[in-house]
Design a protein that fits this description.
heterodimer, A: about 425 residues, alpha/beta, 4-stranded antiparallel β-sheet, elongated, B: about 280 residues, mainly alpha, 2 domains, 9 helices
Amino acid sequence: MNLFSIGISHHTAAVDVRERMWLSTEETRRALPELRDRFFSECMLVTTCNRTEVYGIGREAAIDGGALTAYLLDLKHAADDVRPDHFFRHQAGGAVHHLFKVSAGIDSMVLGDIQILNQVKEAYMLAQDLGTIGPVMNRLMQASLHVGKRVRTETGLCEGAVSVSYAAVELATKIFADLSKKSVLLIGAGETGELTLKHLVGKGIGQIRIANRTRAKAEALVAEYGGAVVDYEQIVDSLRAVDIVITSVNSPSYVVQPDDVQKVMRQRSHMPLFLIDIGVPRNVNPAARKIDNVFLYDIDSLNAIVDRNLGKRKEEIPRVTKIIREEMVAFFHWYKTLQVTPTIHDLRETFEAVRRQEVEKNINRFKPEDRELVDLVTRRIINKLLHQPLTNLKQGAENGSRGSETMQRIKILRDLFGIPADGGDRGT
Amino acid sequence: MVVKLPVDILVVALPVLYAGIVAVYAVTFFGSNSPLERLKRPLLIILILVHFVYLNLRTFAFDHPPITTVFEILTLLAASMSVAYLYIEYRTNVRNTGLFVLFLALVFQTVSSLFIKDLLVIPDYLHSMLLGFHVSTALLGYTALALSAVYGLLYLMLYHEIRSSRFGVVYNRLPNLETLEMMSNKSEVFGFVMLGVAILVGVFWLPMVFREISYWDPKLVGTVTIWVLYAVVLGAKSKFGWQGRRTMIVALVGFGFVFLSMLVLNLYLSNFHAFK
């Protein structure tokens, strides 16, 4: 099989190298037809912040990896920053295995990344759009998307939050039923705090309030995410009216004390209050954790969730590997039968042409009422004659462990019956 | 009697079938992607149908609906809880709480099957339309209060897991705290109203069938006391907007009292409705 994959990823290159090779959609649109014309009969390109990878069926049995690398470096004018040894290369089964691992999410920087499957799908659709992929790549991509879907439904690889900010949001959805009816107060303008707010906005949080010592920073965040600015001095009072509080303040002492929370809880009829303390040192006195209906999480407890979830994801890898193996077997089974399909078609056509020619030449020798029968009988003879050899050929392709044996049979058949070599037959 | 044999078979079979459905719900609760996931609802529907066949056969065989002793009521309660759960599963699409609700139904059905007696002769006063209405409302009330307690218990389990950062199967499988609290609260209010109606009808019915009755009967006093306690708690919840852990403990304790009054008072007395 002359499938190749070549590219760079977080396994082979640091971010400053990877970003040099990142391609925009426009660049990908320009590159794909060129890649096809120069190197491949079918090809596609996956480019994300963690990887830029080309997959393709080579025009020749072997592909000039050096020339392809040089083309990619030239395309991005990156020869000064990116070395050829930053690129990995896979071929045949290795390339299929790599693509399936990527779609499954076990090749990602964050194990079980759910975005990668969509990115692969988008790359596939773009290649389809540009007409740079044919039957083999089509089938390969469908199999690869199927791997991704199976991994997501049959394993726990993508379950559980694996970032501090998302772990906090996941906890919020386990406490509250409908975030659109809830409100959040962000205290401080730290990066993780803002990211948590961003995730909450993504989940449709109802109201946003932001407090910061430097009011201008709070106003800037309000301009970006909506909501209202709260005076920094008023934060304890504000706890009465919000459901989720994210604190991310650089302060040597606690910003929220248990007494404040106790008082506020009485005022809010003990409605649950979720405190996410991302500050280091901590912003909320941990004693507040003991108060009824208060859910207090600090950076360590959130990190512990992330670590535990990552551990669980790692435990799922054997199940993912099994799915990949099964799908590889299914794909190669299909591929092997694909090798013989054009030959079977051509052989039938040849026999049919001979039959038709002979029937037409001799048909007037038969009575008009028998002519239909002659046509039918000759068809049957051809079918019966071809049935056994074609079944053997197909089964040989399906069951045979070596592709070269099938290729030899195809060659003999074509030679014997004078069928010209066909471009549709695919080398191994 | 022709229908006696199937009744005898079903008395033994029903707890086994309930144990089976609890096992199916347990497998799908603790294991992910079980092939039983799709089967569990149809299996529950079949179980409910079998239970209804049993109740009807029993009514036919002994010439009275199974509402005359506590153990007859318990089998009705088990059926009623299964139907209520099925309805909740359809309405809310929360599919992972069945294990707990159906476990309670299993307990009710097992107790019923162990102690139920084949009563062929029952007092005339138990053949009454008003009694039927009384029993139906009481049954709905008890079912709802039992559900309220189950959801209260699930709330407390999840509350504990979230607060202690020990995220196990309860955390992964149950819906969020607010949903569990809402389910418990709604069941509690419905149960309270139904039990109130049952008490009213009961109080109205008593003088009609007994010449000498005492309104100080322990059963009556016990039930009314519990109902008043529920009234106080619900009133306070509504007035002060109480929420969260403590109100769920109240739902649990409340049902504990209901169950005790139903079982212990009736074991203490000779018959469920043997008012003296």
